[in-house]
Amino acid sequence: MSSERTAEQFSPKHSTQVIPAVSAPPKSNPSQISDLPDEVVLNVFSYLHPIYLVKCTLVCKRWNQITKDPSLWPRLDLGLKNIKFPHIFSVLNLGVKYLRLAQSKIVSAAKNGAAIIDYSAYLSTWRPLRIQYLDLSMSSIPVSCLNELLQHCCTIKKLSLESLEVNEQTFSCLKKAQDLDTLNLCLCQGVSPSGVIHLKALTKLESLNIAWALRDRMGIIALIDSLSHSLKRLNLSGCRDSLLDPDVRNLVKASPDLIELDLSDCSTLQYSCDSLIQLKHLRHLAISRCDNLVFIEKLTCLNLECLDMFTHDLLTEDFLFTSFPKAAINQCRTSTIARPTVGQKKSSIWGMRTRPLVKV
What we know:
This protein is of the alpha/beta class. 24% of the residues lie in helices and 12% in strands. Helix 11 links the parallel strand 10 and strand 11. The radius of gyration is 32 Å and the shape is elongated. The termini are far apart.
């Protein structure tokens, strides 16, 4: 009997003990950035300035890996900087497409007079370089470092080497850039006939600036023989006594679809207007300081939009305005052919805005 009472007392019906309800596990509610998935963190990082992205690389290993995503580094401005040459490869490994290095001082890592270093250790083995626009105008870089850099830039489309020292190997490295359509070699030193002949391999080249870089007849002849049929814009100014009327005739045959041509400071030209009128697509012509050039009136058959003839001894601006009423006369004092930066947009290269590492 006692056993039945005991069982009855502890039955659920008579039990006075309150059993707390089992609560559901708390739902995940991320409140810290460390709890967010990589895709969300990457999207947050895309709004940061490059100087802050560099600081994010020091937070933790996870953030360091996320900041190396190529989508965060498409455009970069390192102009007016002092840079060690291996660091350029580190930057390119981030996936930079548009890089401005104008007026930068690039120092080789060579020591004790060594001229050649194997930089393959600085290159990524799993991600090819994506560089497309590269501006090295007026920078200071050893020619050996320049050749090493160009050797790995096979995807480049626009390149400026203005005022740099080059050699035959430099042009040989450019042969790998089969998609190169814009090349600025203005004021380059070391341009030789054996070097420019390699330009024949650049079949997609549309804009070439080689002003004041060729000083002898052999270089002029080699260049004209190497010009692409697809060339649309050419700056060949500064040839002085090297460019002759037969060269202009051969130039027109080699590149008949020229839209813009600059032959300024080619003082030996006399009868080249007979050849220039065969350029049916020509819209912008610069023949400043070509004082011996005659029969300028023949150019009226062209549909010119811009004509630059500064300081011509025999012709006045009134004559030019009357003969070419639809053309803008003497509006461009400097050529813009193949140049990366034009006007006030000093942080843009070929119309693509770059982002400096120093916030301004």
